[in-house]
Amino acid sequence: MLDWSRHQGAIPQGSHRVTFAAQTSPPRPPGQAMITPLVHLGVLEIHGQGGVTFLQGQTSAQVELADGQVAPLTAFCTPKGRMLATAQLLRVDAERLWLLMPSERIAPLQAHLAKFAPFYKVGIEARDDLALIGVMGDAALSLVEAETGLATPKPWQQATSSTLQVLRHPGPVPRLLLIDSQDAMSPRWARLAANAIPTGNAAWCLQDIRSGLAWVDDGQQDAYLPQMFNWEALGGISFKKGCYTGQEVVARAHFRGQVKKRLVHLQFDGDTPPPAGDAVNDAAGKRQGDVIAAEYDGEGHIELLAVLSTRELAEPLSVAGHPCTRIPLPYPLERLDPEALFADA
Questions:
Q1: What is the average pLDDT across 327-341?
Q2: What does DSSP assign to residue 77?
Q3: CATH number for the 4-210 domain, one of 3.40.30.20, 1.10.10.10, 3.30.1360.120, 1.10.150.50?
Q4: What H or E segment, with its residue span, contains residue 100?
Q5: What is the 8-class DSSP label of residue 229?
Q6: Is 47 exposed, middle or buried (0-12, 13-18, 19+ CB in 10 A)?
Q7: pLDDT at 258
C-alpha cells in the first residue's frame, strides 16, 4: 500500500483513515475539485480462465455483466443469505477480475473463497501493489478527463487505459475513483493536486452516506441480508441468474416480502459520530436498528446510515440519547435489475 503520509504529506488517523493539515471534518466538495487517498478501500483479484464461473456461483452479481465497461455492485453471502462482504466487480482483462471493497474485508473474503478456488483452477490475490484515489466536485470529471485522456464513465461503469482503471460512483456531487500501480499513482496525484484540494477520505465516506451506499465491515459480517443494505435498489442483486451461495434465502425474502429491516439516512444531533453498531432507539427507548456508518458533514452536523425496522416507529429516533432526523434516500426502495440497469452499456 502506498505510504501517503511519506509521499504526499497526509496525516494517518488509524489504519483506514487519512487527513491533511488541520482538517477535522470533511468540507463540502467545491466547484474546483477535491482529491483524497482511498486508504479504506482495496482490491482482491481473481485470475484464471475459470474466474467468471467461479464467481457466478459465489456472488449476487450477474458476473458476465462485468465486461470491461460495466462494473456492478455485488455481495457475498453465507448459506443463510447473510452478507460476508460487499464489493464492486470489474473486469481487467480476459482472465482477471477485480473486487473493489473495504480493505479490512479483503483477507477474510480471500480465505473464504480460497476453499472453493481449486475446483475452478483460479488464483486469489490481494493487490497491495495498487493505490486508489478519489476525485470529487463539479470540476472532477473534466479534471480526470484531462489527466487520463479517458471519457468519463457512467455510475457503476469503468474506463481503462493501460494499468489505469477509472470508475464512477454515484452521489450528490460528481466523483470518480482511480486505481493504478503505486509507481504511476504518486506522480498522477501530484499532477491532479495542482488543480484540486487534497482532503481526507472521510469526505469520500460522507458521499457514500449521502448516496445511500453502505459497505459491510468487520463488525457487520454475517448479520444482514443484502436487501437490508438496499442492495437490490442499487442494482447489486441479480434475481435472474442461477444459484449462488445464499441465493435461495435472498430470493425468498424478496418474493415473499420478508425484508423487515432497511437502510435509512439520518441526521444525528450529537457532537461525535456514533460508532457502527450503536443502537437506534424509538421514542420509547426501544432498540429498532443499528448504526452502520457515520461522518461529519463539514457544516456542524453528523450524518449516518442505519439499518432500521420497516415498521411504523414512534419518533423521534435517537442514538446514544441524541435525536435523529430522517433524510430521504436518493433512490426509490424498489428492485432494480442489473440486467436492465446496464442494458444500454
A1: 95
A2: E
A3: 3.30.1360.120
A4: strand 96-102
A5: G
A6: middle
A7: 83
Please give the helix or strand (H or E) that residue 180 lies within, else none: strand 175-181
3-class SS of residue 19: strand
Measured distance CA(123)–CA(265) in Å, rounded: 38
Q: In this predicted structure, what is the pLDDT of residue 29? A: 55
Angstrom distance (rounded) from CA 287 to CA 318: 9
* 3-state SS, residue 80: coil
* Amino acid sitting at position 168: R
Between the CA atoms of 231, 237, 243 and 245, what dihedral angle is there, to the nearest 10 degrees?
Answer: -30
Query: Please, which residues have CB within 8 angstroms of residue 80's CB and are 6 or more apart in sequence?
Result: 246, 249
In angstroms, the CA 2 to CA 185 distance is: 9
Residue 116 has pLDDT above 60, yes or no: yes
In b/e form, how buried is each residue of 121-152, taking b as 16+ CB within 10 angstroms? ebebeebeebbbbbbbbebbbebbeebbebeb
Residue 203 to residues 41, 151, 175, 325: CA-CA distances in angstroms? 14, 24, 11, 21
Task: Give the whole-angstrom CA distance, residue 266 versus residue 243.
Answer: 35
- Segments making up each domain of the chain, as ranges: 4-210
Cβ-contact 39, 103 below 8 angstroms: yes
Answer positive or negative: Cα dihedral of 169, 171, 176, 180: negative
Residue whose C-alpha cell reads 501493489 in the numeric block: 129
pLDDT exceeds 80 at position 6:
no
Q: Which three cell numbers stand for residue 115?
A: 476453499
User: Per residue in 8-52, pLDDT tens?
Assistant: 678 888 788 888 875 555 555 556 799 999 999 999 999 999 999
User: What is the Cα–Cα distance from 199 to 324, expressed in whole angstroms?
Assistant: 27
| Beta-sheet pairing, 130-136 with 175-181 | antiparallel
Please report which confidence band the pLDDT of residue 208 belongs to, taking 50, 70 and 90 as the band edges: very high
pLDDT in tens, 130-148: 999 999 999 999 999 999 9
